[in-house]
Design goal:
The chain has 37 residues and is an all-alpha fold. The protein has one domain. It is 84% helix and 0% strand. Helix 1 runs antiparallel to helix 2. The radius of gyration is 11 Å and the shape is flat. Keywords: Membrane, Transmembrane, Transmembrane helix.
Length: 37
Amino acid sequence: MHVTTYFVIGAIIVLIIALFRSEHKFEFLKAAILFIV
């Protein structure tokens, strides 16, 4: 597997955990989408 694949998987896991803990879910999603793109 490529390094980018591990990075994407790790990012998704972190985002899921952060979404459960964050109260500003929409802002976090926007930042996540911009970060990925």
